[in-house]
Amino acid sequence: MESCVVLRLTNTSADFEARFAELLAGKREASEDVDQIVRDILEDVRKRGDQAVLEYTAKFDRLNAVEMGDLKVSAEQIEAALTEVPAETLDALQLAHDRIYSHHKRQLPADDRYTDPIGVELGSRWTAVEAVGVYVPGGLASYPSSVLMNVVPAKVAGVERIVMVVPSPDDVLNPLVLAAAKIAGVSEIYRIGGAQAVAALAFGTQTIKPVAKIVGPGNAFVAAAKRRVFGTVGIDMIAGPSEVLVIADKYSNPDWIAADLLAQAEHDPVAQSILITDDAELADHVAGAVERQLKTLPREEVARASWQDFGAIILVDSLDNAMPLANRLAPEHLELAVEDPEQLLDKVRNAGAVFMGHHTPEAIGDYVGGSNHVLPTARSARFSSGLSVLEFVKRTSILKCNAENLRALGPAAIALGEAEGLSAHARSVSIRLNM
Ligand SMILES: NC(=O)c1ccc[n+]([C@@H]2O[C@H](COP(=O)([O-])OP(=O)(O)OC[C@H]3O[C@@H](n4cnc5c(N)ncnc54)[C@H](O)[C@@H]3O)[C@@H](O)[C@H]2O)c1
Ligand SMILES: N[C@H](CO)Cc1c[nH]c[nH+]1
Ligand SMILES: [Zn+2]
């Protein structure tokens, strides 16, 4: 067997449940330390505004700006960035944009209005969130694709003001991030990141007007900050450090599976990549392939740390036992690298996104598939979904009664108002019925 540093579990072994439970508990999410740091930053930005943002940006991104205006990206800077991007990369970005746009167009909900059997009119009206803050990560890597994934659905929904924040550590910002912002149609861009950026968007500062909702992925600090500002603003979900779970059968190519596992591992030292297979030989080959491929990656250190600390290979006696484990892990990405993925798909309950068969690597979904790559992590796929147009709209219900309807429904409303001890409620109906 080739060397393997990763955790290996066999679902038939006596200690499996205990070890799987450890895997579920993880330790990748915001620790108390992170949460405490974030709490202090949020409070500081809320009190001191721009000045606090400038100081944290100097501290964490090593970027010394004199004033917030220096961190606001100008139209000239965006135009200049466009000229720096090779034409073929711009074409790829445009292709990604167009595919994301057409897929998300299908998600727009329709207004509804109908008359029920007693003549009462009911309905729903959808309106866009007015101002949205989009967090684009930029600490360890830059994410032009995340600009599109966040902004395109907001545009489709009709959001008027889209404020993008993206850190530019050491004053470096990938021009492709600005090109993507231009293509997608962002209104304002600030080169700030982490909890201080989330705070600026949520509470507002002297320079940045607050938004109503903050969306987008980020590291543990960003995820913790979004959790904490929820209530002051809306948030989409907790889209933290990336995860993939690959379920592979004996027909899988171990080199392909290893590449897929490392595609998540290279995101973050606390990213997580897990393989579940019923084929011991495949498990060994994948472990070996991971070791070989790791050495070829420019981001070897990040990927190795992730694989070593949070990676796992789980050997199951039958693939039938893979899906219950997958549903408990509730991964951000689930690859079904098997001959008949449709048959497994029926059993998927908890997953941010599913990638079907041997020829749908998750990386296609990251960029050009058309579906959204901002997805719930840390088991939150048990109760939330990936980013979509629905995150940028809200539904208002509509009710319309005429006098006749009120006569029909009023007595029951009066009875319930009185039963709750709320006599003003009862009166507001009875007064119209001359009761
Ligand atoms: N789930 C998804 O949909 C999705 C999509 C893309 C990326 N991601 C994830 O986004 C993350 C990006 O992380 P990143 O770090 O590259 O960029 P980031 O922009 O999320 O974080 C960088 C910021 O973190 C803050 N920070 C760093 N160290 C800090 C410290 N010690 N104290 C306080 N603040 C600190 C800084 O303000 C810095 O600007 C990765 O985990 C990646 O896996 C997730
Ligand atoms: N896999 C990430 C979501 O977890 C998204 C991404 C952006 N660029 C590359 N990958
Ligand atoms: Zn990715």
TrEMBL record:
Annotated binding of substrate, by residue: 242, 264, 267, 333, 366, 420, 425
InterPro entries reported for this sequence: Ald_DH/histidinol_DH, Histidinol_DH_CS, Histidinol_DH_monofunct, Hstdl_DH
Protein name per Swiss-Prot or TrEMBL: Histidinol dehydrogenase
Source domain of life: Bacteria
Highest classification ranks of the organism: Bacteria, Pseudomonadati, Pseudomonadota, Alphaproteobacteria, Hyphomicrobiales
Function: Catalyzes the sequential NAD-dependent oxidations of L-histidinol to L-histidinaldehyde and then to L-histidine.
Gene name linked to the record: hisD
Cofactor binding summary note: Binds 1 zinc ion per subunit.
GO term, biological process aspect, one: L-histidine biosynthetic process
HAMAP family per the UniProt record, alphabetical: HisD (MF_01024)
Family of the protein in this entry: Belongs to the histidinol dehydrogenase family.
Organism: Roseibium alexandrii (strain DSM 17067 / NCIMB 14079 / DFL-11) (Labrenzia alexandrii)
Residues bound to Zn(2+): 264, 267, 366, 425
Catalytic activity: L-histidinol + 2 NAD(+) + H2O = L-histidine + 2 NADH + 3 H(+)
NCBIfam families xrefs: hisD (TIGR00069)
